[in-house]
Fold these 3 entries.
Entry 1:
Amino acid sequence: MPTNFTVVPVNDGPPGLPGAPGRDGGSPPGAAVPETLDSVFREEEDSGNTPGTPPGRTQLTNQVKDLYKTRPFLPDQETGGYYDGKNMALFEEEIDSHPMVSSLLNKLANYTNLTQGVREHEEAEYEDGAPRGPQMGTFIGVYLPCMQNILGVILFLRLTWIVGTAGVLGTFAIVFMCCACTMLTAISMSAIATNGVVPAGGAYYMISRSLGPEVGGAVGLCFYLGTTFAGSLYILGTIEILLTYIVPSSGVFVAARPEDEAWATSNNLRVYGSACLALMALVVFVGVKYVNKLALVFLACVALSLMAIYAGVIRTVIEPPDFPICLLGNRSMKNDKFDKCAKTELVNNETQTTLLWALFCNGSHLNATCDEYFTLNNVTEMPGIPGLLSGVIKDNLWGSYGPAGVFVERRGSVSEEVQENLVMDKPYVLNDISTFFTLLVGIYFPSVTGIMAGSNRSGDLRDAQRSIPVGTILAIATTSLIYQGGASVGKNLVIGTLAWPSPWVIVIGSFFSCCGAGLQSLTGAPRLLQAIARDGIIPALQVFGHGKANGEPTWALLMTVGICEIGILIASLDAVAPILSMFFLMCYLFVNLACAVQTLLRTPAWRPRFKFYHWTLSFLGMSLCLSLMFISSWYYALVAMVIAGCMYKYIEYRGAVKEWGDGIRGLSLNAARYALIRLEEAPPHTKNWRPQLLVLCKLDSDLEVKHPRLLSLTTQMKAGKGLTIVSSVLEGTYMGRGAEAKTGEQRLKAAMQEEKTKGFSHVVVTSSLRDGFSLLVQAAGLGGMKHNTVLLAWPAGWRGAPDYCWKNFIETVRETTSAHQALLVAKNIDRFPGNQQRLEGTVDVWWIVHDGGLLMLLPFLLKQHKVWKQCRMRIFTVAQMNDNSIQMKKDLQMFLYQLRLDAQVEVVEMHESDISAFTYEKTLVMEQRSQMLKQMQLSRNERQREAQLIHDLNTASHCSSSQRAAPEQVQMTWTKEKLITERNRHREGVGVKDLFSMRPNRSNVRRMHTAVKLNAAVLTKSQNAELVLLNMPGPPRNAEGDQNYMEFLEVLMEGLERVLLIRGGGREVITIYS
């Protein structure tokens, strides 16, 4: 549905002015008159003319009114330009980030999809220097290049041989499969090409922007190699026509024996092909405009050749051409070494032998000894082109395949067979190569690979979205009809004999056709390589993005010539054809895949103007391309896939990061959404449990990660894969520190990349650190991909830090417990090993209580990393007085065996003993310190209350002396009597208490006793361990014991270098079942 735009002028003048409503073309009488600046100013002046306005100001206002009435637009010298752009003053603050519609449309109108330097410097500028846009239309820019590339060397040199070998039905099948493949690909390509502007790069641009830089770069290089080898194919075809039909005697190498003919032909192809390649490269180097000018000449020759062929076909109905074929028995023979197809001839009533006799006999006399097969069989002559009415099509419906070196025989003819060795000096026609159906498919397919010739010129097209689909599909339809008609012409070796009026029309036409196609390949391939290099996705190809001053890809042309020379050195048309077939088929496969993916994803940006497509057609084309790859040559197909796979991995690891909004990313988003929904259907089973980490990092004042070793530990634990979220909290408001939050995320990502931590980074801004930690523990993650484990560093130096530091830590412990999440606390995190270190000691696990098995699972995960791989795992458990330590060890060993964990087991006996004086004193010091801190905190509160009282008293005194303030506005927070009562109450409780006469709490003494004894046992067994894993005791239920809890943990870990406190989430994370 077309969209209509209406431009509405904004009226700035008062009524009565030209162009204003109500006069000379304005609104009719009685119509609504829009608001004007005059009425606005008048309202402002009337509202401002209050009784309190000074007389001078009223006089000035009246002068301004008189001035505006005589001159409705305020002059710039009097306003200072203050009212410039008043029409859109409401949006003036957003103009920089949100341009006006007029500016946007102007940019779109002046947009050119040409990359810098694609067109010639001479053609890119007018005489006045103004740049000119692309001028090629559908016929010149797409249809003719596609026709010229499709109707090339295979049509003239191999199509009749394919018909003679595969038969009419087999050839129809080959042509149909190949044409169907290209037609389906053209439909998919048309949909992609009409889904937006297609700059230079053609198929590579479409694939890379649809499937991502990795796939696009890999397939783009395959397409480049295919286009380059196509140049080799066309050059080899040009030289073959030149040396076989135009000047057959100009070969540099001449075979002395029949066995050496293949060697001489190959060397001649290499020499003349290299010279032709150098000449064509020089033409392309001079300028692409000369190639475009020659294109019409070359295509005219092709058109004349095709008309000559069809004229000859029609002529065979009236008068078949004289093209006899000589047969000996049923074996066909080459007639280049004899002039008469007969053993003897009658000359002056005397029987004489012919040149054919001399080829099979050891003399020219009649009683000479001759070849046995020659003696037993007669020589016959038959028309090579019997005509359409002769029934030749019915006789040649089925194919005739055979190995290399066998005789080409006429089916249906009777001959006397003899046992003989193959002799190369006999004039038999032999199979040059082994023929089979799949080989013919690979040889024929290059004849339909010109469909990308138009899309490769996308940078030169006036309207690529319209020209590419129309021109490409018309070219495929035209050439398909030509090939289907040509496949039924007849079974002969030289198609030129069929042409009318002269065979030279075909020879000259095929020669120029191959020349033109070769020039087109050498023109398109360097630009394709230049487009890939300029995208920057492959660092090794950066040099090929540069060229001459006018943008011609000089370095890319040199690279193309070098690769093309490799194809010429192969010196075999039949060997080069399957190579480029693989590369083109892979490119076509991914074009279909790109269209199918975009269609199925239904992304909002997928709005192609070409509507005649469907995802089923794309999948059918993709399947057909894949089938043709393996039908043509399964080993070439594997090689092409390996090359594309290697390039994909190279771009993935070494290439530049590009975000093109490709379909693979959309596919990933859909897959992620589907997986997240499935994950929420049921909680994960114990066998699927893995630590999904929420890492709470701290950023310093420069927004750098304070403890990067925390990320190293995360990487080392991620042998279990799973989710990793690295988060931090900034204190403040998001409006004030939003930019710092984004910077912090970037710093976190950089630190994660340096430590090889794969996951997500997130920085939140909250009013307090406490709220931020609570928010992350509750809301981090999405759906089924939420964290189940929190990792943070032990607050070192907490005794000298403000209270909120260790209180935030304890509250985080409480919240993870309430959320049923596991907690990992690393002490001395800066001493933990980096990813480059290798440890060989022991990892000791002190299993005190069972809280889900995470204590035993983590060492196994750590040992999967190369840092801990050489470490041995030891598990210690504690036996009480009533426990059987021997039986406990046996049971624990059996449990570890069933868990498939390799670890050394040891039971440590901790007998009941009296509480030592050291423990009692340590508990007393802890409680005294806690009491002192409480009193200090109380004193601070009292000072704050006294200051508030003084402020309130002063405020009340000031307000009572003011007449304008009401008495009820004075509100006192404290009174003097209330303050004295409050102070006495606190001092009676604990203020006067003698700290040195305190007795420690019995429960605290027992807890301290446990911590001291357990610490002594750990130091005895694990002081030299590389890592110690301990059960983390739970926090106290009320906040009064928080500081004592921190002391207990400090005593428990005292003297150990690396400690990881572990607290389970309340569920089993390890199982003995499979």
Note: Residues 917-960 form the longest helix (44 residues).
Entry 2:
Amino acid sequence: MARRSRIRSRIKKSHFYTFRCLRPKTLDDQGPHVINGPGYTRIVHCNQPQLHLATKLLRYRSNYVSTTRYNMLTFLPKCLYEQFHRVANFYFLVAAILSVFPLSPFNKWSMIAPLVFVVGLSMGKEALEDWRRFMQDVAVNSRKACVHKGSGEFGRRMWKKLRVGDVVRVDKDEFFPADLLLLSSSYEDGICYVETMNLDGETNLKVKRCLDATLALEKDESFQSFSGIIKCEDPNPNLYTFVGNFECDGQVYPLDPNQILLRDSKLRNTTYIYGVVVFTGHDTKVMQNSTKSPSKRSSIEKRMDYIIYTLFALLLFVSFISSLGFAVMTKVQMGNWWYLRPDRPESLTNPTNPLYAWVVHLITALLLYGYLIPISLYVSIELVKVLQASFINQDLQLYDSESGTPAQARTSNLNEELGQVDTILSDKTGTLTCNQMDFLKCSIAGTSYGVRASEVELAAAKQMAMDVEEQGDEITNVPMTKVRTQRYTKLASRTSSDFELETVITASDEKDRKPTIGIKGFSFEDNRLMDDNWVNEPNPDDILMFFRILAVCHTAIPEVDEDTGKCTYEAESPDEVAFLVASREFGFEFTKRTQTSVFIAERFSPPGQPVDREYKVLNLLDFTSKRKRMSAIIRDEEGQILLLCKGADSIIFERLSKKGKDYLGATTKHLNEYGEAGLRTLALGYRKLDDAEYSEWNSEFHKAKTSVGADRDELLEKVSDMMEKELILVGATAVEDKLQKGITRLAKEGTGKTTLAIGDGANDVGMIQEADIGVGISGVEGMQAVMASDFSIAQFRFLERLLVVHGHWCYKRIAQMICYFFYKNIAFGLTLFYFEAFTGFSGQSIFNDSYLLLFNVVLTSLPVISLGVFEQDVPSDVCLEFPALYQQGPKNLFFDWYRILGWMGNGVYASIVIFSLNLGIFHVQSFRSDGQTADMNAMGTAMFTCIIWAVNVQIALTMSHFTWIQHVMIWGSIGAWYIFLALYGMLPPKLSGNIFHMLIEVLAPAPIFWLTTLLVIAATTLPYLFHISYQRSVNPLDHHIIQEIKHFRIDLEDERMWKREKSKAREKTKIGFTARVDAKIRQLRVKLQRKHSVLSVLAHKASAFLNTGRHHYRRWLYELNILAREQLPVTFFSVAHILTQPIENKIMFVIGSYIMYDDDEAIGRDSDMDQTQRQQTVEMSSKLLYRL
């Protein structure tokens, strides 16, 4: 009970939320909603879930959720349909069925075994991926919730066993297990804070409030006799509406979204709540928003289908030619073939019925030439994609150490699509940020404070420094010595409050800056305000008011860490947290909030000890997107009533009094500068009120607050607007919404090509599922976007590596892999056609059935898999340094029809060379010293050996990057062929047949067998070698140039060239963050040109003076510097003193500074300066060059 009393002693939050959650006291007396008709049929018996089992109409869905594609019953039929929906697999299914009939030229197992292996492997991969989804569902469904079991006792129960009508208790930081009606909370007025990041990606806390009728349900025992009925809308996907009535104790109360707690949102800043389950499982709003994951296919896979169709057309064409040839030969030549007994012809060889022979032979030919279609293509690609996905999952550069979250390829079907993204879609900039607001700068009483640079300023400075280093005087159009270039490059790397070059100089010294490392939400640096130094500023009263507005005008709640004693803050927006952290660092710490007051520990008295001050909170006018401001009306310890207001500058400025615009011009200038620096700004103002004025207004406000009707909010806004006027402007804040590190520059205007959608909340699910590729961010925004995505990463910055490295690699690997597949199958399959034509279209295969079985499945599969898994045209660091390489994917340079047809043509050429050379060598002459000639099996084995060598050497030439794995797979596959041939030939003749001792006794002893292999290898690879040599020499691609630079180590010998090429390779886009950086760079360049133009004119006009009295001038300048040192501190003398001089002295100082800056070696030669004085004069004159 002591714990409960402490809970109940907390504040009554409804006093702070006048617009969104506080309703008039008479709200429960309003009429209920009219609930009838279609769409409003749901009835919930509160605390009586068993009643929903008695009637079919009330038997609602369970709370079990599933995101899998299959279940135990649907897996086999659905997966088989998916597999044979592919045209190639369907062809091989038909071929396998036909192979059991005598028409087949092959053994039936040579067709069935590969098909079973390929389809089985693909189905296993589908099962594995769906199992992972199932285990994620199990983890969610197995979460525990505290449920009322009866008699006022609560117990733990798994989420999936919750039923409609159950009463649950949810504790702080727990997720809501279903859609609940809020009954009560740990706060006495029944409000609670809810985090909805899982639903809408928003970090702001939402406030919910229960009905007054259920406030008394504050203990477990209260539910012993509780009952009620909810009549409401049917399940629907709208997250922001709810219509229903609650019937309890003979009364009917209207319900709205303020009482509904949605599944997968989280309870925050509230010890506990009680709620009753309204919607469960797939009826909840979050699941209603989750559509079934669509089956996505990459553009390469879609184009691959057309290539398969092309090969099918080729298959039909050669089969037609073969069968037609067979029919002609049957009609014309059958009478001359006595060994076929033309006097007693069979139906297939009957010369009187050639049409029948044509039809039957067509079926045989379709089976014979089926090896033109790569049966192992699909399974090899799927295996490669699974391995590629595992590399993405295990990439340490994509691992977020803060959250312990790795990247995850949730589907491997779209790996290569990552390399072809043309458009990136994101719903909001929050996806690109860390959701961390940092207080960076401020403007108070017309003075700008804060010398640390924003990310936009830093990016602009770095780019300017790079441009100066690379281009020298091209930027400023002013001759610049090497020393001056180095100096400017150094200056450009320093940044400050408004990023003006003069401020860079004067504020760049370390003694002018105080680091504030390690304070989350506070990146402010400026000694003028820190450590109570603000009391020495020109307007300390205005600065004091500024700090008090930050510390008092908010709705946050302090949480004191009992171990450290430090306060953390729970607020509706991260901006408010940043303001409170800033006020604490400035010496005004918000420590406590009660029902009517806030307490601030103010530390600015002479001893520096904090003094607790109480500010009575009379009213809070909350922030809304329409109002764009919030106000607090307070009474301080002296009894003065103040209205403190903060909001958008356009809103605040139009409410200023005539006497409140003293700082308007300067503040407007600073706000523009902050905006250019990419900062979020708010203006701050206040107004003093007398008691009579406030009492009169508060009476009107109370009437509006307690009014009943649709115009209540409008009345409240009107009354609030009466108070929020005649303000006095104090200043403005500038906070930075920190971008995630390494923001990519890949986003472009939509072109109707491959799109990628990235999001972090449930509201992004539709976009993620509709895009070609969906990426979910799994950082702090929950799992709904991740569950619907194809890939998940922990931070947006990882998207660059995911696309530029993995996407680029996967695209080129898959593209080369598919092209090579078609090449090797054409090279192999057409040799069967050539031989059949050579033998009179007899339907005879020159190869043994075991060779056919091994070709696709064993002897050529591993090298192509190694290509798809390990190939790299350039290393990962070069991919990131040269993002222009990524454009090879969107431009589809490696899988266009020109390249595809080129590889097919290469396969046709290889098949002709292999067949003709082997036929010419082995057919017309003996191939052994004993005069033995080659039979069909010997020539077929020699031809197959040449094919194995040719296709494996070709893939070795295709690769740019080798590991020991590739070597083992390529040369091991060739070795495996010889090992198989030797071992198979050792089997008894009953098993080995005509291959008995084929290698050891027939082919190996013949030198011509080995020479033929070498000749074929050379002849088949020459066209490719000529093509690649010509391309690298005459029309090289980007990666060809980079490969040569790396190979010859030119990047190490000429680092300047390498750096310049990297800069050119970055294609910058002009949107968002990059656009602001680009605008800042243009602004700086204009200022530099203007400064140098002025200096050039002054130098020209004073040339006569300088030519006649340079020594005299140097002496005069030195004396003037000495005089200034005696009057002012060294740090400030040059700027402060010269600004008070007549114009002629200013001009002389500028000219002198220009000369000294350009020729510092001349300083002191004709004067009495020692080395230290000379160095000081050079430094200060250099600063004056830019300051004046």
Note: The mean pLDDT is 78.
Entry 3:
Amino acid sequence: MGILSVSRFACLTFSWMNSVIANGYKKPLDLEDIPHLASVDNANEVFPVLKSKVESLSNGDNQITSLGLTKAILYIVWKDVVITGLLALVYALSSFVGPYLIDSFVQYLNGHRDYENQGFVLVAAFFISKIIGCFAQRHWWFKLQQAGIRARSAIVAMIYQKGLTISGQSKQGNSSGEIINFMAVDAERIGEFGWYMHDFWLVFVQVAVGLALLYKNLGLAAVASSISTVVVLLANLPLGNIQEKLQDELMKSKDARMKSTSEILRNMRILKLQGWEMKFLSKIIKLRDEEEGALKKYMYTLSLNAFLFWGAPTVVAGITFTTCLLAGIPLESGKVLSTLATFKILEEPIYNLPDSISVFFQTKVSLDRIATFLRIKDIDSNAVDKVPQGSSNIAVEIINGCFSWDLNASSNPTLKDINISVNQGMLVAVCGTVGSGKSSLLSCILGEVSKISGSVKVEGSKAYVAQSPWIQSGKIEDNILFGREMDRQRYEKVLEACSLKKDLEVLSFGDQTVIGERGLNLSGGQKQRIQIARALYQDADIYLFDDPFSAVDAHTGSHLFKECILRFLDSKTVIYITHQVEFLPAADLILVLRDGRITQAGKYNDILCSRSDFMDLVGAHKEALSAIDSLRINVQEQTNSSKNTNKTQNDETNGILDSKAQLVQEEEREKGKVGFSVYWKYITTAYGGALVPFILLAQVLFQTLEIGSNYWMAWASSGLPGDPALVSGSTLIIVYAALAFGCALCILARGLLLATAAYKAATLLFHKMHLAIFRSPMSFFDSTPSGRILNRASTDQSAVDMQIPYQVASFVFSVIQLLGIVVVMSQAAWQVIIILVPVAGICIWLQQYYLPSAREMGRVVGVCKGPVIQNFAETISGSTTIRSFDQQARFQNTNLKLNNDLSRPQFHVAAAREWLGVRMDMLSCFTFASFLVFLVSIPEGTIDPSIAGVAATYGLTLSNLQGWIIWTLTGLENKIISVERILQYSSIPSEPPLVIESNRPNDQWPSQGEVDICHLQVRYAPHMPLVLRDLTCTFKGGKKSGIVGRTGCGKSTLIQTLFRLVEPAAGQILIDGINISTIGLHDLRSRLSIIPQDPTMFEGTIRSNMDPLEEYTDDKIWEALDKCQLGDEVRSKEGKLDSPVNENGENWSVGQRQLVCLGRVLLKKTKVLVLDEATASVDTATDGMIQQTLGKHFTDSTVIMIAHRITSVLDSDMVLVIEQGLVDEYDSPTKLLEDNSSSFAKLVAEYSMRSNSNY
């Protein structure tokens, strides 16, 4: 039952939540059990309203100011704001009825009766005002939370939409980590601002009413209280400013840390292979230290704040009473108690003011950040003129185009003087050396690059295949359909063309297999082919391919080219970038790029005739081919056998997933109660809990002294007008001042101790969790989407830093206060115990009944947050692909749906809380009323009126306090889950030790570099099949060995086992006679080198990228850069070795990144070198250069190479052919080529055939 179809009464008491809470008590709730939102809260309804409002408020070029954004947000929630404003006013006024009546009540107890049954009339007035106040407060809070959730989901949708439209250039200013923070932290904060919204004007109302009441009681002394109140309020402003500064500092350092963390998690495989993970961990710890500096200051400022504000009411009361004495205004106990009760009510808004002020500033910072983000330049939608299909026969036309990624550096554009015209149905190839601007050319056809001058015309729809595959997490089928309807026939044809059939047969769920984040359980080739399938299925008019053949082996590459481009797309316009010269002859037009200009354009043979850059590329390729010929193969004779190999075209399998368990499991959420052990672990984290007893002691003392001071004032002042005073005025004030001073000291001690313990606990938890994550095995990162880890490092860590300590403390302090009140009340009338016991029982029962559903809904909120963030992160990284397919609207809808899934549990969590609140309030009102009835009905004189008065004064705050305890307890239950989640990641089983002291290899190891593999069996996880099934072979020391085989046969797995990213299930690997499983991981990994498949660079400088461990001198680094031919490139930059590298190395081309990886290896110079398909993203000329460099500098090292280009293994000493995890052949290439029936001979024949044919 939703909130729509309910009666007035159900609405008033929140009874419409009964069914949800009852259901939650029976079983753990899931998202399906939570009712849907009303349309007014639905993101699909709210987002368009906010969007159009923002557009109407932005001036000119979509420049929205923070003020404009605020107006737009208010526009979607203004009704709620007005209603809650009225409710807040009602609540504020009703809360003063109690103090107003206390004076008459004490006089009544002292025997002063005005009329008959006056006592019961007073009790009724107390009771009714309390009840009205309770309902007003509950609905005020609930409505504001509802508005906050609505605002948040609309803002998140705005940010998401912006993420889809910002240009690549603007993205460089905001890393994906920061953009995710806008969504995870800033939008959330704006949503939570609702709580504090009315506090600002409410304070003035409350203070005004309070002072009027004081004036009635104390006459002119009220002036003194008002002056001292204003002084206290003003004292707060400088503290608020300091807090805002610290808050800002904290957010900045947090952004930096999250940016670094997300980059490291993305590249964990490389860090593990190189043995760098501890160095990068220390980098994060260093960033965290800066953050902790700000955190420490922030916490101590907070404790000073608390000191000022808890001390304030006592100070103000002291000043007021002193003024009364000096002015000769008589102090009667009724008036004194009424005054104290008034101060008690004023306490709350004045306490909360600092919070409200700091939240106001936090929200302002967040609004500014989001508005700044919304102002970023979008992609220029007019850069490309899009014309519908069929208006002419030109598909793509660029006239005098000049383009630049960076508009500020327009003096040096990325592409200049581009003139091309491509007719419908043409096949265009783009080639050129590394960094010549090939990918940028495709980007300007897509409209991704800023256009400086010229015109671009594109006719019809486009499909695009990026260089590095972008795969969404989800089913394979969804990745290929990409939002289109399923057309079985076409779908099967596409799978056939991309040779995905075989791969899907191997996967246990076929095309229903769920792919991990960024395609983690697929091999590089499979990701690339799924990406091609996605483009083919789209039936576009123009196809743009950014070198998709480099990630697959030669065999599959030529199959893809033939099937996809020449057959499937024969009638379409296709523009493809390629490094493989053998794909060029088929093109109708070849564009050769150099330094951002088209140096040549024409057909293959025309260009060949004019000596040029093109010749260099082809020349390098020809040399490689002649290597094959020199091995004297008679190619012609082989033609027949190669025809037969077409049948085996699809024998690509990937054994990783051959079982019935999906790799990425659902995120675990602990079910049931948060164990007490979690609280215990948290409390004892800092100094083994040594500070806890002192904090408690300070609070108990504070409570005792506070009650003592009030009791002293009530007892020592005279009962009725005209009674003689019991003590002299000066004594009265001095004792009161002493007690008040004691209170203030306790508060200060409590605040400082709490801050110290909280800071220590946050630090320790952070270090523990990060150490565990960095030391966990690679399999953990493969099966855990990075969003989950990031969520713990940002959201959960934030909660531990800023919220949990104060929530724990707040709960404990309130319980101590409550006990204090109970003691005072039972002092006055012990009969109250008869009521207190059952009421307490009912309260505890209600609490227990409500908690299971609240807790599970809280956890559902946590679990639903992940997908929103992850979907967003994926969208940002694939925004180019999404735009090129014109799928923005579909992605926006997915985001809205995920957003609603998050709002639903949040909305119902809020409702459930108020459901409990209303019921608790009723109980405490009932308790207080019965207590007053006791006092009124006991015969006069049996009880000391001043004690009764003090008890009644304290009783006034009973319902507030009780509500507050429940509120903090449930808030705590929800927040402590963060500690639970951090602890959960602090106990991940770790990899084997980095160094085994008792078994360290000597410094010279490996001196020979001989790698011995005996009966190796490897699987990725216990429930998965073997990938390597019994592999035995020996790589001789100092020799060069090539490994070939179809995609997914286990080549990469063998390398991962050599580096122990995967531990063997059976068998062993020996290097120079030492079993690698017996030594420490760092000892092993630091003595091997690898050039990995995906070239990776980290944010930082060239120096930190070449030598992260800072082991080498600058001269050494320059030497390595020169060897890998990057020296001149780096010298030409301003910063030389300190030239900046962006996130993921985005400001360097893929080829240049590959060269940096080569440079790292040259710097490290080890005895064993592994190349993992390292030359896939480089043109043939650069490839030849890499091979030469390696040949020159690694003559006496063992080189193990996984190859896609058959030519690169021809000059190796030995070739290992792996077939489905077993050794198929292992011999020297010449030997293998002599036997025409060998698998290797067939592969080579195929390669040279396709290279000589013109298709």
Note: DSSP finds 42 helices and 24 strands in the chain.
